[in-house]
Design goal:
By secondary structure, this protein is of the alpha/beta class. It has helices at about 5, 15-30, 40-50, 65-75, 90-100, 115-125, 130-140, 150-160, 180-190, 205-215, 230-235, 250-265, 290-295, 300-305, 325-335, 345-355, 360-375, and strands at about 10-15, 35, 55-60, 85-90, 105-110, 170, 195-200, 215, 230, 240-245, 265, 275, 280-285, 310, 345, 380. It has three domains: about 5-130, Response regulator (Rossmann fold); about 135-310, 3-Layer(aba) Sandwich (Rossmann fold), CATH 3.40.50; about 315-390, Helicase, Ruva Protein, domain 3. Helix 4 packs across helix 15 (about 325-335) and helix 7 (about 130-140) packs across helix 8 (about 150-160). It is built from 17 helices and 16 strands. Bound molecules: adenosine-5'-triphosphate and magnesium ion (MG). Adenosine-5'-triphosphate binds near residues 145, 146, 179, 286 and 363.
């Protein structure tokens, strides 16, 4: 890495040319590098470049897409990218809204340069803390993990540590907490990331079908097996198999799974030769596996094999602070999915969502927002548009 590329890059979004120039001069005099954008469009273009800025410093009032809207968009696609807003005196409300939407900080205009320096420094420091680097990676893929609460940061740190190893990971958590996303993130953090990530839902499949699904079968192995078929373990060779609802496996399947975990070996159904693969296993369950072991419903040796690194996901009610950011992110994703414009959302609505109990966690939040969005007249989600009574 060259010396210049180690200096943090600050993206300045400001419509007035003279202000851009002054900011550039000041920030560079402090040893940072700058990229300049005159509006949200240019800012988004700058973010498509290979080198991403470490921090975005944006004006609130701009023609076209304003700073708040830019912030919403950035939080949707680059969840962990810190954004500092600059607002003129008298727009405290916008500043409060900005903080709710996940801005790192805000500065009053006209700018006090000492304060600017302090805020940028503080933001850069927290952006490079442990776990946050991973947050930024987790936050930018096709399926980003949203949330910067301490409990989620602990999850990201575990993903970053366990990901690159070949250790089996067991993801635990209530329904809808994001177990599948975490499993995919573990794969993405490993050297296997270019190889397949293959999911098997162990709960929904009857035992003999599950065996065929996992290990494949030979032609004629059973009625209907008109040609040979490779199983998920074969297909995932070099990559990762994600065993969802692993707690629901039958005793016979548990033995077969234990064998693959120990030796990488398995037989196709109806096969005569043993096959060997190199597969990493990540599994998930929302049942209490330790209790299942105590009740002799789940093999203890298999449990220890699967549970080398446990990652527990917090229920949504234990990370309410993440809800505004999640709402923002989900509204953008759902709007795109339903071919609708991204609506704004009233702060009273965000507050109601933040205080709801969410027994079905993020999935339930997502479903409720989708319903509100589909039925929405106008462009703002209000408190009364939310079917919260059913919670
Ligand atoms: N931290 C998060 N950030 C963004 N989206 C999330 C997050 N957690 C969950 N989701 C979304 O919520 C939905 C449910 O997540 P997921 O399927 O991973 O949950 P799960 O724990 O596997 O649930 P189940 O136990 O019911 O299978 C998905 O649409 C997912 O994208
Ligand atoms: Mg799941």
């Amino acid at each position: 890495m060259t010396e210049t590329s180690e200096k943090p890059l600050i993206l300045v979004v400001e419509d007035q040319a003279n202000h851009r120039k002054v900011l550039k001069g000041f920030l560079e005099s402090k040893g940072w590098r700058t990229a300049l954008a005159k509006d949200a469009g240019e800012a988004l273009k700058a973010l498509k470049k290979k080198e991403k800025p470490t921090v975005v410093l944006t004006d609130l009032k701009m023609p076209g897409t304003d700073g708040i809207e830019l912030l919403r968009q950035l939080k949707g696609s680059f969840a962990s990218l810190p954004v500092i807003l600059m607002t003129a005196y008298g727009t405290v409300e916008s500043a409060v809204e900005a903080m709710k939407l996940g801005a790192s900080d805000f500065l009053a205009k006209p700018l006090d340069f000492e304060e600017l320096e302090r805020v940028v420094k503080k933001t850069l420091d927290s952006a490079t803390r442990e776990g946050d680097e991973w947050v930024s990676e987790c936050g930018e893929g096709e399926h980003p993990l949203i949330g910067t609460s301490a409990v989620m940061k602990a999850v990201y740190t575990l993903i970053a540590k366990a990901g690159p190893s070949d250790a089996s990971v067991l993801v635990l958590g209530e329904t809808g907490t994001g177990k599948e996303l975490v499993a995919a993130a573990v794969h993405a953090a490993s050297a296997r990331r270019e190889k397949p990530f293959i999911k098997v839902h162990c709960g929904a499949i009857p035992e003999d079908l599950l065996e065929a699904e996992l290990f494949g079968y030979e032609k004629g192995a059973f009625t209907g097996a008109v040609r040979e078929k490779p199983g998920k373990f074969e297909l995932a060779d070099g990559g990762t198999v994600f065993l969802d609802e692993v707690g629901d496996m039958s005793a016979a399947m548990q033995v077969k799974l234990l064998r693959v975990l120990q030796s990488g070996e398995f037989d196709r159904v109806g096969g005569t030769g043993t096959l060997k693969v190199d597969v990493r296993v990540v599994s998930a369950t929302n049942v209490d596996l330790e209790k299942a072991v105590a009740d002799k419903r789940f093999r203890e040796d298999l449990f220890y094999r699967l549970n080398i690194v446990p990652i527990s996901l917090p229920p949504l009610r234990d990370r309410c602070d993440d809800i505004p950011e999640l709402v923002n992110f989900l509204l953008q994703r759902l709007a795109a999915k339903n071919g609708k414009a991204v609506p704004s959302i009233e702060s009273a609505a965000v507050e109601a969502l933040t205080n709801a109990p969410w027994p079905g966690n993020v999935r339930q939040l997502e479903n409720l927002l989708e319903r509100a969005l589909v039925l929405l007249d106008g462009d703002t989600v209000r408190r009364e548009d939310l079917p919260l009574k059913t919670l």
